[in-house]
Structure formats: C-alpha cells, structure tokens
Amino acid sequence: MTRIHFSAVAVAAVLASSPALAQTEIQWWHAMGGTLGQVVNALADGFNKSQSEYKVTPVYKGSYTDTLTAAIAAFRAKQPPHIVQVFEVGTANMMAAKGAVYPVYQLMADAKEPFDPKAYIGPVYGYYSTPDGKLLSMPFNSSTPVLYRNKELMKKAGLDPEKPPTTWPELGEMAKKAVAAGAKCGFTPQWQGWTMIENFGAWHNLPYATKENGFGGIDIELKFNSPAHVKHIQTLGEWSKDKTFVYGGRDGKSNAMFAGGECAFTIGSSANSATNDKALGKENVGISMMPYWPDVIAKPQNSIIGGATLWVLKGKPTAEYTGVAKFLSYLAGPAVQAKWHQETGYVPITLAAAEITEKAGFYKTNPGRDVAVKELTLNPPTVNSKGLRIGNFVQIRDVVDEELEGVWSGKKDAKTALDDAVKRGNELVKRFEAANK
Amino acid sequence: MEKRVTFNERFLPYLLVAPQIIITLVFFFWPSGQAIWQSVLLEDAFGGNSKFVWFDNFSHLLADPAYFASVRLTFVFSALVAAIGLAFSLLLAVMADRVIRGATAYKALLVWPYAVAPAVAGVLWGFLFNPSVGIVAWLLGGIGIEFNYVISGNQALLLVVMAAVWNHVSYNFLFFLAGLQSIPRSLIEAAAIDGAGPGRRFWDIVFPLLSPTGFFLLVINILYAFFGTFGVIDALTKGGPGQATNILVYKVYNDGFRGQDLGGSSAQSVILMLIVIALTFVQFRFIERRVHY
C-alpha cells in the first residue's frame, strides 16, 4: 500500500517537473517572505502568463544575507541563478565583483530591449547607477524612512494629531509631552544607521563619505562624524534619559514598539505602513516627512532609499539573458510598479507608476502613502544625497550600530562614539580597497 | 584461557574503519584545509579578485582591539556557561537521584529543554525578557529592576548565559545522573555506618567518583559554549548591544557571511581552531591527572 502510494507520488512529481512546453526557465532568488513573497509570486505569474517563451521561477532564499550567501555559493559552484535580489548596502561589493555581475544597462543593450533612464525616480535610479548614469542593477523594492506618528497618543498629550512635527526641536517637545501624558516612549528610530546617520546626512545635505559618498571611487574616507551628526546623536542620547527617546534594538525591531502603541513617534521604512495600519488602525497612524534641524539647513534636501535591487549574474547561456531583459522590462512597467507600490508600501521606481497611483485616488484613501516619493523627489539630489556606495557597508553598519548603542547605554558620548565609528569604518573601507585594487 | 578473535584478512580492518576515516576527511579535514587556505587570501566574495596576502588577514586581526575584546568575552562566557551549567545540573542530578516517587516524571521534565533547538531557546528567552512585551521583564520591572537586554550589555550577556545553560542543562543532567547511579551503594552505606554525614559522603565519595563524568562534561561544555551557543546568540542578541555578546564563533559568522569578508573570517576560524585545540590539550594534560577512573 505504502509502496504504491509512494510510487504514485514519484510519478506525479516527475510529470509535474517536466515542462509542458520547451520554455526557458529563469531562476529568480529573492528574500521576500510572507505577504511580500506572495506578491513576488504573483509578479512572476503575471510575466509567465504574458508570454510563453520564458518561465520565471521565484525562489525564496531567506533573509537578504542568506539570499546573497546562497547566490555567492551557487556562483562559485558555477550554478548561479539568473537574477538575485541584493540589499542596497551590498551595492559596492556587487559592483566590485566584476566577473560575476551583468550590468543591467549592458544587458538591456545586448538584448535590444528598450530602456529609458529618465522614466525612473532620481534617487532610486541614482543609487544603483555609475557616476555617468548607467544602471547596474534593477531597482525592485525601494523604501525611504518616513516619520510615523501615533495620533491617539498625541491626542492624549493634548497635541493636534493632524499637525506632525517638522523639526527635531518640535519632535522633542511633542515626544516629551507624550511621555508626560503616559506614553512609554516618545520617539524610537528603526534601522538607526540608515535613518539617523545615512538619511540624516542626505536630508541635511551632509556627506557620509568623501568622493561623492563613494560614487567617485573606492579610496574614500568616512565623514559622518560632522558637528551636526554629533549634535543630533548627543541630543537623542540626552532624550533617552527621560524616555523621550527609547532605543528598541537593531534593524527594524523597534517597530514592534510603535506598532504596539508604546511610542508616539518613530522614523522607519515607508514599507512599514501596512503593518502599522493593521496594528493601530488606519485612522490612528499619521505619516509625514522626517524632521530636520533648522540650524543645520533651511529646508531639507531629499532622502535616500533602502531596500533591494535585482542583480543579474553571469554564467548562463547568452540566449537566456534575452528573457531576463524582458522580465526586467516587465517589472519596471507602470502598471506592475503601481500595483507593487500600492500592495507593499515600497516606493514605485518610475514616475509613471506614481502618477497612475495618484490618478486612481489611492493617496486620498491612504493618506501619507505618497510621503516617501515626496521625500525622495523633494529636491534634485546633490552629491551628498544621491545615495551611498561604500565597500564593506554591511560591516560598517554593524559598527555604527555598536557605537550608537554605546551612546544609548550612556557608556560613550556622541562625539567619541561617532569618531570611533568613523575610525573603525575607515579600516573596513581600506580593507575593501585593498581587496579590489 | 583467554579467547582471542583474530582477523587474517589484511585489508578488512582498513575497510571497516574506512567510512569513519572518509567522513572525517570530507567533513573535517577538507573544510579545515579550505579555511587555512582562505585565511591567506584576500578576495571579493564571488572569488573574482583573489590575492595571496601571506599573513595580512592575521596581522589585521591582531591589530584590532575589537578582536581581543571578543577573545576575552569568549573566555568569560565559556567559563560562566560551563561553571553554572555543571554546578546547576549536578545539583539537579543529586536531587533527582534521591527522589523515590515520581522519579521518571522529574527526569522527563529535566530532560525536556534538550529537545529545544538552540535558536528556539533563544527566541523563547527573548520573549520572556523582551523589554516591551516580556512577562519576566515586566515582573522584574514591578520589583524595580529595569531589565533591558537591548541596551544593557551586561544584562544581555547574563541572558545569553542563562539561555545557553538552560538549553544544555539536560545533557549534563543525564550524564551526572548516570554517573551517580553507577556509584556502588555499598561504599556510601559503609561511609554512613562509619558516621559520615550526607555532606561528607558527597564530597569524599560521590564527588571523586563522579570526576570522570565531570571531566568529560567540562570538555563538552567548553566546546558547547564555544560553538553550540551560536543559535542562542543569533536569535537573542546578534552579538549586541555594542559587542557585549559577540563571541568568537559569532564574529566568524558575522564577518564571513554578513560582511562577505572570507579571508578575515577564515583567519578567525583558524585562530579559533587553535584556541580550542590548545584548550582541549590543557584539559587533558592537567585536569585529567586529577581525575580518578
């Protein structure tokens, strides 16, 4: 009985795995779990139904790190996937892997696929292109930090919930009032390296590193210990004494504190809006632009992105890359992008997708979901705000996390911590330079 | 007359040990060799720009104060995990050994934590002590102790040690219990007749006779603290806050897999391998002498 059952399953498996048509399979390794993973599968399905020559197979490989590690191992074993999703901090390292990646601009040209750089949103496109504007990897899920506020806690503190703070001193005052009215925490940042250092710099038009934040070369020095940075971190450190500021852990962990209704304010990824709406109720969550320091800059510059892009790996038969190019074009299509943007909260990568969403009235029914795009396109990007191209960036972010934690626990003052972070980061940058000379 | 089994075949013995030898070669010597080779290379993760750099990776490590901090931390952490783990499980074993009614139930409960994977144990303890939703953290807050392992390095270390000990206590317990039960009752009874109290009987008879078990467990626990606690740390603290729980094995993973610095990570593995070999050697050379078999 069992044996019969077993062989039936085996036969079914063999039947299922043999393609009905002579389709070319394109492997797409990604790191989108849960609901996002379902949207990814739907995207691949959409493409597969739109034509019959190619079949995109999305494979979930775990976290960003797991996905990248798996792709590297596969590449070294000469079995790479066609497309792999890599987070933004891996950009410089991917670029340096010259024999391994197939730059998107070249892929599109080789496959004779129409491609218009102007269709893309500036900071999204710029983050992943060469200094002369050639796109290296296809932007996929991009987000930017926005300020979330808990309207209920604001009301309790006697504040007008429809008037979000626009400057840091205002935020500090409101957060203090919220704590005084019983909130467990005034403000908490997520992905502190990304929001409080990297985006803080872009927003105030301050450099993160020399050579246009690394776009101009790999022999760079880190610069995020400017007086403005120090003052900002120092202020947050002081706020942590009376819970105006509460540190909630690395990465996105602190969003649990905001979604749990403990914190009045948080700066986090725009992709969190769905989670926050679900947890607190849409009417209780407000989204607005990040605050700025009026004594550092008169008007904020623009924010930079986070998230991931799709890198095409070399090592497959040439003919298959035509399919890859077609698929990337499909993904960048306005309708697909608009759907992706609305369902996930990631920013659309093209202006057309933003317009479609606007026209469909999406932002009216979901107020605040346009803040991310507004922040990114607030001003034409400067050398300090078009993005970051730093080698060994993953480790540098860890260093920043460690040093900032020193400030939050009161072990270090802001200046020492940022100086140390820059010093330790510069070691990592030098190591990257040595490996890629 | 003594009975002897002899094999006339010349190759059969080799054939019989071959599977073990092959497994050791493939799963231990080959990766170790690879690590040693990688440790003298500087390359990007995809293997494109590979350069032979002699001992640059090592000198880089030895110039890094954070690395020494991690070495020190690892020793403190291992000492804590081994000492607390052994003491606690010995206590449990001695008590379980005395239980007359419901002994099986007690034993089953005490063995339970071993069925929990380290990563799951980490998540579990993380939930209990989570500063915003953790029930234990809430209770501690009620008696005026602010427990926040996300910010406080010492509390994070304490929590990781507790989780690691808890996860391994069953293993130690089983061995201690077996050791206790193999001690001849007659010895203890004889001592009792001679007037030795329970404390005396434990320290003069039971403890020395348990020493082979204890020694074995010491070696195993040190190895566990060095390598096996990875899952607990990854799930609980990821090496933070600061570098408060960044023990060597976690640093190897972090630099190698997150940072894609294969050369530096391999150099760390090689050093870690040397440390563990040295530790095990010291244990066998000096502590084993005091063990009564």
Molecular structure report:
The complex is a heterodimer of chains A (437) and B (293). Chain A has 437 residues and is an alpha/beta fold. Chain A contains 20 helices and ten strands. In chain A, strands 1, 2, 3, 4, 5 and 10 form a six-stranded mixed sheet that branches. In chain A, strands 7-8-6-9 form a four-stranded mixed sheet. About 3% of the residues of chain A have low confidence. Chain B has 293 residues and is mainly alpha-helical. Chain B has one domain: Orthogonal Bundle (MetI-like fold). Chain B contains twelve helices and two strands; from the N terminus they run αββααααααααααα. In chain B, α1 crosses α12. Chain B is globular and about 75 Å long. Classes of the chains: A alpha/beta (437), B mainly alpha (293). At the A-B interface, α3, α19 and α20 of A face α11 of B.
Task: Map the helices and strands.
The complex is a heterodimer of chains A (437) and B (293).
Chain A: H1 2-17, E1 24-30, H2 34-50, E2 54-60, H3 64-76, E3 83-87, H4 91-96, E4 101-102, H5 104-110, H6 122-127, E5 138-143, E6 145-150, H7 151-156, H8 168-180, E7 185-189, H9 192-203, H10 210-213, H11 227-239, H12 255-259, E8 263-269, H13 273-280, E9 285-288, E10 306-313, H14 318-332, H15 334-344, H16 351-359, H17 362-365, H18 371-376, H19 393-408, H20 414-435
Parallel strand pairs in A: 1-2, 1-3, 7-8
Antiparallel strand pairs in A: 3-10, 4-10, 5-10, 6-8, 6-9
Helix pairs in contact in A: 5-14, 15-16, 19-20
Chain B: H1 12-38, E1 41-43, E2 50-52, H2 56-62, H3 65-98, H4 103-111, H5 118-129, H6 135-142, H7 153-181, H8 185-193, H9 198-228, H10 230-236, H11 248-258, H12 262-287
Antiparallel strand pairs in B: 1-2
Helix pairs in contact in B: 1-12, 2-12, 3-7, 3-9, 5-7, 5-10, 7-9, 8-9, 9-12, 11-12
